[in-house]
Specification:
Elements (H helix, E strand, L loop, with lengths): L16 E2 L2 E2 L1 H6 L7 E3 L2 E4 L5 H17 L16 E6 L2 E5 L2 E5 L13 H10 L8 E7 L5 E4 L11 E7 L1 E6 L9 E5 L4 E4 L8 E7 L11 E7 L6
Antiparallel strand pairs: 1-2, 3-4, 4-13, 5-8, 6-7, 8-15, 9-14, 10-13, 10-15, 11-12, 11-14
Bound molecules: succinic acid and fe (ii) ion (FE2).
């Protein structure tokens, strides 16, 4: 059984998808993957992605960014967010003066590029029985960028899990309760860590307090990339 810290990507565990989820071999191979730690019900898989897998994902994300460049979203209230974002998949999350929502196109008007298979791989290994995601939000945090406490609730069906991949500099991730306010807990997410929010943690308030510059040399110019895989549309 492959360890949770990964290893060289081989043909046997390459992402083999079919229309509605990952195949049976993967399901059996990876049935016993367990999180390293749980924080407020969210599962943290420390070091889940090997350095080679991280590099492959970064190369694939760079190709996505060439087609769908990062942009600085504004909130409905007109406040510019400090993260820059873009998406891959059938639907991409955006925020502008009209509010938060999923859209089939980048603000430039072109369709979002497909989600790279290297990015789908952790979803298939950790959530093999779940349909494939139709949305991958790409957040880029330069030093000083942060993300305020929020719930992820713009998806059509809030029962599906959310899986997030951290790449580059460490980040302090904070998570609270399903209700706003109250005590929170934090965990440092490092490059190659995967976090899953499902069941009681699916609607927990969460955010990124800060990133820690200079803690990873994965990204040429530093900073942090976060990829959030979601099932955003209707999967009837
Ligand atoms: C998010 O909540 O959308 C991003 C979380 C992260 O950057 O780890
Ligand atoms: Fe979120």
């Amino acid at each position: 059984m492959r360890s949770a810290s990964g290893g060289k990507a081989g043909k046997s565990d390459s992402v083999r998808k079919h229309e509605f989820g990952c195949n049976t071999i993967q399901r059996q191979q990876h049935m016993s993957i367990q999180p390293t730690v749980r924080i407020r019900g969210a599962e943290v898989y420390k070091g889940f992605l090997s350095p080679e897998r991280q590099q492959k994902i970064v190369a694939d994300i760079r190709a996505v960014l060439r087609k769908a460049p990062l942009f600085s979203p504004v909130t409905a209230g007109g406040r510019r967010m400090s993260v820059r974002i873009t998406s891959a998949g059938a639907l991409g999350w955006i925020s502008d003066r009209k509010g938060y929502r999923y859209e089939p196109c980048h603000p430039s008007g072109t369709l979002w590029p497909p989600i790279p298979e290297s990015v789908l791989d952790p979803w298939c290994r950790i959530l093999p029985a779940t349909p494939l995601p139709d949305s991958c939000l790409i957040n880029f945090y330069a030093p000083g960028a942060r993300m305020g406490m929020h719930q992820d609730r713009d998806e059509a069906d809030l029962r599906w899990p959310i899986l997030s991949v951290s790449l580059g500099d460490d980040a302090v991730f904070r998570i609270g309760r399903v209700q706003r306010g109250g005590a929170t807990q934090s965990v440092v997410l490092s490059s190659g860590d995967v976090l899953v929010m499902r069941d009681e943690a699916r609607l927990a308030y969460h955010g990124i307090e800060r990133i820690c510059p200079g803690t990873s040399c994965l990204l040429r110019n530093g900073g942090r990339l976060n990829l959030t895989l979601r099932i955003a549309g209707n999967r009837a």
